[in-house]
Amino acid sequence: MEVAQLAKPVSEDGTGFWRADFYLGGNVTTFLCLMQTLQAIIVDDEWLVRAELRIMLASHPEIVVIGEAGSVAQAIPLIQRNSPDVIFLDIQLPGASGFDLLDQVETGARIIF
Q1: Cα–Cα distance list, 82 to 7, 76, 87, 89 (Å)
Q2: Whose CA is closest to 67, among 59, 77, 78, 81?
Q3: Strands, E, within the chain: which ranges?
Q4: Which of these, 27, 70, 72, 108, could form a disulfide with 101 (CB 3.0-4.6 Å)?
Q5: Distance of alpha carbon 95 from alpha carbon 72, whole angstroms
Q6: pLDDT digits (tens, 9 = 90+) for 37-58
């Protein structure tokens, strides 16, 4: 017997409402909740890595990739302009490191190396 179904978006309009159906003892209980999406930026010099990560994140509708950069120089204005919630950051980048990027921008984003 399946106890719970994973939460899923109720609509595709970006309102953030999610539906979770719980099956217990033959009864179904449905919850609607408001979940915020996380805006993410991917910073990696290898386009194939960026593409693979984007594909992996596509299966998580609560994470929206709002931009990609292949270098620190490309990432700085992208981060400043968009204020992401999460940055997927490569440490070794051409010209400067991921740590150098963090020294150059003020962000409250969570950093995932």
Answers
A1: 27, 10, 11, 16
A2: 78
A3: 8-9, 17-24, 27-34, 38-43, 63-69, 86-89, 110-112
A4: 72
A5: 8
A6: 899 999 999 999 999 999 999 9
Residues 57, 69: Cα–Cα separation, whole Å: 16
Tens digit of pLDDT for each residue in 70-80? Answer: 999 999 999 99
> Taking the domains of the chain in order of start, what are their residue ranges?
1-35, 38-112
Domain 38-112, second-level architecture: 3-Layer(aba) Sandwich (3.40)
Nearest to 104 by CA among 76, 67, 62: 76
CB atoms within 10 A of CB 41: 22
pTM metric for this prediction: 0.73
Q: Which helix (H) or strand (E) holds 87?
A: strand 86-89
